[in-house]
Structures are given as structure tokens and as C-alpha cells.
Design a protein that fits this description.
CATH topology: TIM Barrel
Structural class: alpha/beta
CATH architecture: Alpha-Beta Barrel
Low-confidence stretches: 289-300
Number of helices: 10
Oligomer: single chain
Strand content: 15-25%
Length: about 300
Amino acid sequence: MIDRAGTYRLGGRSVTRLGYGAMQLAGPGVFGAPRDPDQALAVLRAAIEAGVDHIDTSDFYGPHVTNRLIREALWPYPKGLLIVTKIGAIRGADGAWLPAMAPDDLTRAVDDNLANLGLEALDVVNLRLMFSAHGPAEGSLAAPLEALVNLQRQGLVRHIGLSNVTPAQYDEARAIADIACVQNQYNLAHRHDDALIDRLAGDGVAYVPFFPLGGFSPLQSSALSDVARDLDATPMQVALAWLLRRSPNILPIPGTSSVAHLHENLAAAALDLPDQAVAALEAMGAADGQPAIPSHRPDA
């Protein structure tokens, strides 16, 4: 079933376009241990059994919690599994998200990810920019990216990606390093990256959207609910199916701490959206002041 999502190149290999994001495996607020560790382990194992070969994580989830769960659940890692992690932030004692982009911070973050995942090298490391806590904000990424490139030269990092970046920062980054992916917030009602997605597709670079239903403040849309009801699907399935249709370089990473919800999310790979439903969904973005952009099927 998940194979119907198609594949795309990420981190030097072909991966199934529908992956799994591990953030929700940590405790409330992505802080501390999960309420049910056994359930968290079961979700990870079920994802692999269902065909997921791309897991997104970070050592600042918890902190340290999700990476240790991944290692406990999946070690030794199955052949072909791509683990993508993020650095550039740390957690405060109160759970706050704090910038940590100095070279020493980034080195420590790579070392922590390696230790907690049980790896000698990280497949893909996304540099998470923290110029603003509210989304991408302009600022030079040269210094932290050059520090990450140095870790890549040491053999600790295989591929480099970016997270929470603007188009100008992507341009700056490409002059410094090969970029494997960009990970930003993007969903039916938050489409500020439409032009960037199309440009990345032309460059052969994966775009990994997070918060397909709006993240900590889920989308509330009658259009989305109506389409889901008409297709006998969940709103999350519809949102994911729209992302898969939007552009072939989009690789969603829906997260959950429930095995049942995991299987529901992965079923989006087999959900075909009729043109009328797509038009209704894309009107959500237009109503928010953003142009409705034609969707493209994965094989386009």
C-alpha cells in the first residue's frame, strides 16, 4: 500500500515518499519520556513492517528520548533505512526551544545523535535555523553551515539538509555545500513555500513538509472535513494525499504515537483525490490570501 506513494531521492538513495516523523514519541510538548514507552516502541516497529524506510528525528526531541527509542526498537537497523536528524537547537530546563548554532553546539549535537542512535555516521543532518521561533527568518547561515560541512569532512555526517529556511538562505547554502533536502512547515493552508518547492523539484532536491495538519494548532476547515467525509477518509489522510499529489519531490513525514493512527496515515498513499476535491482543498490556500497552485501527481 505505501508503495503507491512512489519514491524520491534523499540522502543518496531512493526512499518511499511517505516517511515517519518521530517527534510525537516524546512526552507532552515534545519534552520528557513518553507516557507509554512500549507503545512508542511498537509504533516504530510497525512503521518498518509497513514499509517505511525514512524516519525523521532529532536528539532535541525529549531531549534524547526519540533517538534512544529508535535505537531500542530498531537496532540493528534494517538495510535501507534512512534516518534523518536535526541540529541547531537545544531544550531548556523548562522545555523551551533555544538556539544552539555555534560550532561547539553543532559538534556536541552531532556527537549526541551518533551516541543515542548508535551510529558511526549520520545519514542526513538538517541544519535547523533558529533566527526566529515563529518560522523562517532572514540571516546568514554561513557560519553554522560551514561548521556542519567540517563535520561532514570528518566522516560524521554523510549528507546535509536545511530546516526552517528562506529561499535566500537556500541560495546561500548551495554556494557552500550540496543540499540533500529542505524541511519547512507546509500544508493546505500554509503554502508560502510553493515557489520554493517548484524550484527544489527542478534542482532534484527533496522537500520534507512538517505539520501537514497545522502542528500544535490543527487546521479547522469545513472544506477539508467535507472532502474527507465524501471520500470516507480522515482529514489527515486527505491532507497527506494532497501533499503527495502536489509535487513529486514532497516527502511527508506524518508523526503519531498510535499504531492505529500510523496505519491510517500510511493509507493516504492509496487515496486518490478527484479533481473536484483538489479544487475545494486548494481554495483553502486562496481564501488565506495565497494563490491556488495546481497540484501535480507523483508521476508528473
